[in-house]
Amino acid sequence: MQQIDGYTRLCGLIGNPVEHTMSPMIHNTLAQKEGRNLVYVPFHVEHGQVRKAAEGAYALNVLGLNVTVPYKGEIMNCLKATDAMAERIGAVNTLVRTDGGYKGYNTDMMGLYRALCSEDIRLEGEEIILLGAGGAARAVAFLCASKKAARVYLLNRTLEKAGQVAEEVNRTYGYECVAPIRMEEYARIPSDKKYLAIQATNVGLYPNVEDAVITDTDFYAKIHTGFDLIYRPSETKFMTLVRENGGQAFHGLKMLLYQGVIAYELWNDTRVSEEDALAVYEKMKAEMGIKD
Ligand code: ATR
Known about the structure:
Elements: E1 9-15, H1 23-34, E2 38-44, H2 50-59, E3 64-67, E4 81-82, H3 84-89, E5 94-98, E6 101-105, H4 107-118, E7 127-131, H5 135-146, E8 151-156, H6 159-173, E9 178-182, E10 195-199, H7 217-220, E11 223-228, H8 237-244, E12 248-250, H9 253-268, H10 274-288
Parallel strand pairs: 1-2, 1-3, 4-6, 7-8, 7-10, 8-9, 10-11, 11-12
Antiparallel strand pairs: 3-5, 5-6
Helix pairs in contact: 1-9, 1-10, 4-9, 5-6, 9-10
Bound molecules: 2'-monophosphoadenosine-5'-diphosphate.
């Protein structure tokens, strides 16, 4: 590691808990590869201390921060400015130092988009099935509309939540992009074509690795590509069902990689090479015990 000296810049993560994060590996590896005098440290922040943490970090000349659960909404009250997409989504995971305070971004969604691109998965003009209408799914729905997806069938157990997200997204982007459907009524999705399906519920997350929101093979027969935002486990039940029915399936670890890469790029006003990004990805996979 670079010797810490008077010029070392500090970045970090605030959240609660932060102990299991892979972000220090992402940022410290990138800094090392580029010979950049920067260190990245996780900070466990207690409830009610978020504003103090952000102000303290700014006072300490901290270059940038990531923000994780449960503070991605609360942090928005502590910023000098917020990027338009993050504002729409209502969640900020990256703070970039600017004159007079931090500016907030949502690199989770930018990271998802870059992860999809790196697997040659398109959103533009596509017909998409989105599972879930919670915080993560809401952000994905905004991303899809911002990329001019032809249609997003938004499936959620609670129809009202899907309806709210659809209304907001369609109003924002000015076209009938998102169609809300109650989860068990998935048969209403036209069967004359195949879809990209993005799994954005927390069903199937470790340790409930045998769970999937839908298990009916008729549903999976409609999917050509399944992308699960979950990366723990790296093979979710959803992914297995997609594959068993002839589709290709991806876990969410590349989204985690690229949300970090994009934050690093914003902080350092640089562009990370694909080679360096993929070298970090190999380390992340090794840490997770993923072999492929
Ligand atoms: P996140 O921030 O990860 O998106 P969230 O906002 O709590 O978390 O959203 C969780 C999502 O998973 C919601 O879409 C939720 O469905 P409801 O809106 O009906 O609650 C979905 N979800 C969680 N447990 C579920 C279950 N057992 N079956 C179906 N959907 C479930």
